[in-house]
Amino acid sequence: MQRSSWISLALLLAAAPASAQTAKPAKPLPVLRGAVQDTSGKPLEGAQVEILGQDRAVTTPANGVYRMDEIKPGKYWVTVRRIGFAPLRTALNFNPGDDRQIIFQLEPLPQYLPEVEVRAEDARWASRYRDFLWRSHSTFGHFLTRDDIERAHPSYLSDVVRGYLPFTPTETFFTAFFPEPSGLTSRLGGYGYSRGGVESARCAPSVSVNGAPPWGGWAVNDFRPDEVEAIEVYRSLHQLPSEFEGWGIGCGGLVVVWLN
Predict the structure, then answer these.
(1) Which of 21, 26, 118, 251 has the most Cβ atoms closer than 10 angstroms to its Cβ?
(2) What CATH number has the domain spanning 142-259?
(3) pLDDT tens digits, residue range 93-146?
(4) In what order do the strands lie in the sheet with 56-59?
C-alpha cells in the first residue's frame, strides 16, 4: 500500500507541470500602428489619428508613424485629420491579439475652408459616430464595419446586407422605398412607393445615408461596397432605436449606410 501511494503521488507531481503547460495565455489587447502619408506616399507630420469612443488620439512626428497600444476590443470609428487635407474616416474591428498595421493616405484639399466650418463638420461627424458606437452595443440591429464589408468580397452592397434581411426579395435591393406622405407607413407597416412600381416596392428596405431620414429615394444597391464605411441593419420596426422612430419605413426594414 505504501509503495502504491508513492507511485500515485509521483504521477500527480509529474502531471501538474504538463497541465499547466496546456493552459493558453490570454491574448494581448489590440494594437493599431502604421503611418500617415499624402497621396504621393510622403510622410505627414502633425496628422492626428483618433479612435472615437475610446478618447485615444496620437499626433504623427516627422516620419508620419503612429502607434496605439492596449486598445479595448470592439468596433470603433477611426479618424485621421491634418490641416490642408481632407479628413479620413473608417470603421474597424479590434479583437484580442490583433496587431493592425494600416497606412492612411490623405488627399490634399483643393482650397482651405474657413476654420469655423471645419470645426462644425468635425463636430457633426463625431456626434454621429458616437451615436453609431452607442447603438452597436445595444441588443437590437446589426452593425457592420469596413472590415466586415471587405471580408465578404461583395459585388453589390446587398451581398453584405442580405444575411440580415433573409426574407427580402432580391429585386427590392435595387428598388428605392418612398414613405407615404401621411407618415402612416411606420405606424401601420404599409408598403409606401418606389420608383420601380408598387409591386417591386413591397418590402423594399428604407435607406438612410449617414443617419439622415430615409426620404431621399435611395436603394441599397445604389451604393458601391468600396465607398461604404459602415452599415446598420434593422429588420423590423420593433428593432428601431428611438432616434429612428417616426421615419415612415416599410416592412422591408431600415438600412443605414455610412459613407466616408
Answers:
(1) 251
(2) 2.170.130
(3) 999 999 999 999 999 976 544 554 444 555 665 666 677 778 887 768 899 988
(4) 56-59, 48-51, 74-81, 88-94
Are 195 and 175 within 8 A, CB to CB? yes
CA distance 81 to 91: 15
Query: Rounded CA gap, 191 and 125, in Å?
Result: 32
* Residue-wise pLDDT tens digits, 172-211: 888 877 665 444 343 334 334 444 444 445 578 889 988 8
Exposure letters 240-256 (e unless 16+ CB within 10 A, then b) = beeebeebbbbbbbbbb
The answer regarding whether domain 31-136 maps to CATH 2.60.40.1120 reads: yes
Is the full-model pTM beyond 0.85?
no
For residue 221, the Cα-to-chain-centroid distance in whole angstroms is 18
